[in-house]
Amino acid sequence: MTGKNDIQFSISDLLSGHLSALFGVDFGLYLSSPKLYQKRKSALTSQENFTFEQQKIINLLQVMEWAYAERKLENVKKYGLLLVAVLKDLFHDSEIPKKYRQTFFSGIVYHMFSRLGDNLLNLGLAKEALVFYEELFSSHAKDKDLLKKMAKAYYFSGLPHLPQAERIYRQMIRSDPEDLDNYEALGRLLEKSPGREEESFLVYRDALRHCRTDMDRISFYIRQLALFPQDYNLLLRLGRLYRRQGMFLESRHYFEKAFELQPDVWTALDLGRLCCMLNDLRRAKEIATAMNGNKKSFSPACYLSGLINEEEAKWNEARNNYTNIPPGTLLYWEAKAGIARTFLQEGKFLDAEKTVKEIPVEKRNILGAEYGTEYLELCEMLEKNVEEKSFSSSWREYLRDTEPQYELKKDIRRRNMGTAFWRKYEFLEVYENGPAGQVLLGRDRNRGHRIAIKKIDKKFTTDPVIIRRLQGFLHTLRSFSSPRIVSIYEDCYHNGRFFFAMEYMAGGSLAKYIRRSPLPLTDAFAIVLQVCSALEHFYKGGKGGGAFSHGALKPENVLFSADGNVKISGFDIPWILEGSKAFTGAVLKKYSSFWGTFIYAAPERFAGGGFWGGRRKIRNRGDTLEAAVQGIDHRADLYSLGVILFELLTGTLPFKKQNIQAAARFHRSSKPWPSPRFYNPALPEDPEAIVLKLLSRDPHNRYATPLELKKAIKEAKIV
């Protein structure tokens, strides 16, 4: 299931989860791993042979395997539909509810044909993949994932099939104009069509209207620039967007190109400032010389000359250049900050303090023109000199009155890698979107390997308290050293934007494996065992302590490496934002985009008072200080793991509607969980008992620790 390559692709393995739900665990185990089946069979005493019906299924699968190997795909499709028809006849009068039975058999067809098509597409056999995608399209015409796969297959089938791919992409854009992937795919398609470059440019322009983040805008501007590489305005926009993120190397690259095309004085200033920041004074002086030849560029030229003088420690010359910038111009307040810096460097503290106090509060945030931290740096310089020289002034009182969060902001800066982050890491593309922000694909510039970069949405990072809480949490995560937890690297806070780098997991998330399809019993519990190992490390804490519960365990946060090993990632963003592990109605409404976290959350998290409206008396078995204080502890993670395991074994969740309200009502209700055997009748009693114990609504009735859960799984001889 995880990490199988194309050579090992097997239809029997593909259907083993569904068929084990119908014929029993041993039948599914035989299909997915004959060697493991023989080992299990020899360890058990009362083992029956396969029935006539089971043997018939095995024969059909063998014929399908042979036809697939020979690429007789129409035969594979025919026998696949025959297989499902045989299964329907066999279980026509079974105890499985009719409604679920229909969904179940439809799911087999979808799972089988979509995975067959995916495998062929990955092998470069796009036309062959369409045999299965087109069969599914008749009954799943509105399935977005299927439509994207079909369009991709048409695209790779060659020039004659491009109109069909184009039609699908345009249809998806009309139905969901917020899905940027469709614009990107359609734009690429039009680029490939002779003479349609202008249309492609317009598609990318339309996409820009729906971009919500700078990273998305960067992606589409780069695509437009590839079509029209001499577009001055595109180069400027890219330079400014990269600068706003703190990516000064990339920003300089685009400003250089823009300056070559049109040496505008403001473009020159942007480029010159970046050169000063990157310590390339030779290039900065060349730009300043070019600016001085234009009388209209007086203020920008003076400002850039002042920056260069500062870098060369020519304080008086720098101050003279800054003083020449007249009041009311765009650079006046930035020049004031520069004057204050020169006074500080010369030890003229009273003059520096007086100059800083002249900068109005409303002008502080614009200092540095999107660099964002110039005023804070100035305050720190002044405070440091006041302390070191024992210089008496009213500076601290003034700072306390005008910047009440100064100490917190200073601490954030002290713990932050800053723009050096983007000198170590390179942004490549937007990988995926999540409720808290985007995951970017990046590269370590020094070592060359890929990394993932999490960008927290700007709407969550306006409060310095939240930024500091994020930094502290990431610091704790970095202290963990576990092969089951995704590694966290440096973080960066710049200009109101927060990023952190982490290990890249090439195998994707568990979410893509459990939609519409139950997994084989052994695969499901093998994943659970690895998640348990990760949770043990969370609860033990890192090198400096700091044990805590995960709080956001869901399939999207269970990741696979390229070789199929499981690691867990992510953390409880609503808790970081609100400082509480309980979900009130206001929190559910405010953070509705985090529906995935809420669907897998434990019942006690929906009750503001903790364990059912009040903290229970502390018991020796498993209760923690965390439970005593908030009524919520690590057993909430075990409940979430139970929901995941239920979905792994049944291919479904028990909620009638997949939304927050339905999930909250279900988790808070006193009704028992439906038996997994209701959806998967062949599930043995021991695995079912493990699932239902994990899903106890009273935390005291669950497993106390992941170690206890692992012991129960091993005693049941499931894996």
What this model shows, in words?
The protein is 57% helix and 6% strand. With 719 residues, it is α+β, with helices and mostly antiparallel strands. The protein is built from 35 helices and seven strands. The longest helix has 25 residues, at 98-122. It folds into four domains: 6-23 and 49-208, Alpha Horseshoe (Serine Threonine Protein Phosphatase 5, Tetratricopeptide repeat), CATH 1.25.40.10; 228-412, Alpha Horseshoe (Serine Threonine Protein Phosphatase 5, Tetratricopeptide repeat); 418-503, Phosphorylase Kinase, domain 1 (2-Layer Sandwich), CATH 3.30.200; 510-715, Transferase(Phosphotransferase), domain 1 (Orthogonal Bundle). α9 (162-175) packs antiparallel against α10 (180-192) and α12 packs antiparallel against α13 (232-245).
Shape: globular
Terminus-to-terminus distance: 15 Å
CATH topology of the largest domain: Transferase(Phosphotransferase), domain 1
Helix content estimate: 55-70%
Q: Mind telling me which CATH architecture of the largest domain this is?
A: Orthogonal Bundle
Low-confidence stretches: 1-7, 43-47, 609-625
Radius of gyration equals 31 Å
Strand neighbour order, sheet with most strands: 1-2-3-5-4
Average per-residue pLDDT, rounded, comes to 85
Q: CATH-wise, what's the superfamily of the largest domain?
A: Transferase(Phosphotransferase) domain 1
Count of the separate structural domains: 4
Which structural class do the helices and strands define?
alpha+beta
CATH C-level category of the largest domain = Mainly Alpha
Fraction of residues in β-strands = 5-15%
Tally of separate helices: 35
Total count of strands: 7
The largest β sheet comes out as:
5 strands, antiparallel
